[in-house]
Amino acid sequence: MKSRFGILASFIFLIPLVGFSQGYYNQENFGNRSLLLSGNVTGSVDDLGLTYYNPARIALIEEPVFSINAKAYQVSNLSLKNIFGRDNKLGDTRFEGVPSLLAGTFKIDKWEKHHFAYAFLSKKRSQLNITAVDEVTEGDIVDENDDLDRLASSFEFLSRETDEWFGMSWGMKLKDNFSVGVSAFISVYNRRGTYDLKLAALDQIQDVDFYFNDVNFSQSSYGMFWKVGLAWQLKNFNFGLNIDLPYLEVIKSGKFRYGEFLSGLGGGDDIYNFGDLDGLESNRKEPFAVSLGAGIPWKKNTIHVKVDWHGAVSEYDRLVIPVIDDGLGETEEFRFKEELKSVVNFGLGLEFYLTETMNLFASFSTDFSPIETNANIFDLVGNPDRDVNIEADYIHYGLGVDFKFKRANITIGTTYSSSRDVFDRAIDFPDPDDPDPPFVNEDPSEIRFTRWRFIVGLEFPIFGYEVNLR
What we know:
Layout lengths: L1 H16 L14 H5 L13 H4 L12 E4 L3 E9 L7 E9 L3 E6 L7 E23 L3 H4 L4 E28 L2 E26 L4 E26 L4 E7 L3 E16 L7 E10 L8 E10 L2 E10 L2 E5 L6 E2 L5 E2 L4 E4 L2 E13 L2 E10 L3 E3 L4 H4 L11 E12 L4 E15 L5 E2 L8 E2 L4 E18 L2 E5 L1
Parallel strand pairs: 1-26
Antiparallel strand pairs: 1-4, 2-3, 2-25, 4-5, 5-6, 6-7, 7-8, 8-9, 8-10, 9-12, 10-11, 12-13, 13-18, 14-17, 15-16, 17-20, 18-19, 19-21, 21-22, 22-25, 23-24, 25-26
């Protein structure tokens, strides 16, 4: 009967988790025009997204004094096929806000050649909280197990990840057409996961069996991201180079709680396994990266191109979790590791001149998965011998218009992202005709993800200053 509990548990927890994966580098963009250009602005950024894309550009452009990127909104859809081996489809559609940017510039009188900016941006802010309570009295689970009469379950899943950046940028012209710049960001990173499953079964002789499984983990990291930029204004185009140094972790901590309890199974052993661990060693690593970009004027239009490379990260422990001993001779080992491969992404953005008051933006960029091994809650709940990774590659598109009026500019646009991946099912089903069954897992599963974002940007002067709102 324990395997029956495990199958139902897999049914419940797999659905929301496959939509989450860490490690992508181009999921977020910052700045009105930079967003519509899909971030292809390393050599041509002209808004305060430069603090993120290339700080050297601050010394070469007419800089806005203050910029607020208010929340834009997105509609995302996740569809799953053949997750349970019955060629069925599942879906999840969400409407939510997206990360924002607040940035401004300032000068120091004594340092006339130096340009400064500050920025507060939400690099990542995601949350999923799902709860379910159900009772099964008929259907596949009960019908396939003659000794079960009723099966009740309650389930809660929480996944939360935030990464807030606070920093400053500096830039200076070394020549009339060449500048250098540096951005330094403090990162406040927190990640938390909760999995809580309770099952109760009533068999044909009115005995009640229980299975509880509770897993919680959290990871906190405080550190620094550094960006070094170079920018050139050449005769026929603008060129830029941006270097992202590896993440420098300063303060880190981790927690882990695990409980598994099984009682009332005739002929089987009960389970009592519990551990509550604080002050665990935790690690967060982000690789060295280089981005090259150019802005190429063509008549009254501009072509924006970019290519970036992110290095590999060798396998390491996101959390170091010791073996948990239940005191009855049984132990539990948990693997929570991450490994990233190097990837190269590229993109193209087009800025078309339509009229004196209107420009059109169109763009695309790639976002290839760097995941070799992804630390996720599968590692803490599922089969310890299985490493379940979703390695879908994304393509991002942007489209919008910029209206220039005497007293205000209005930017309206949308972005679209999509990905698809085929992977081995994380759920195995025993063969009912074999008393000691091998697990069968013949057909792959499929995941598809789409995301629409909608942006309205306003630029207008207030008291002699320029304010940007998205």
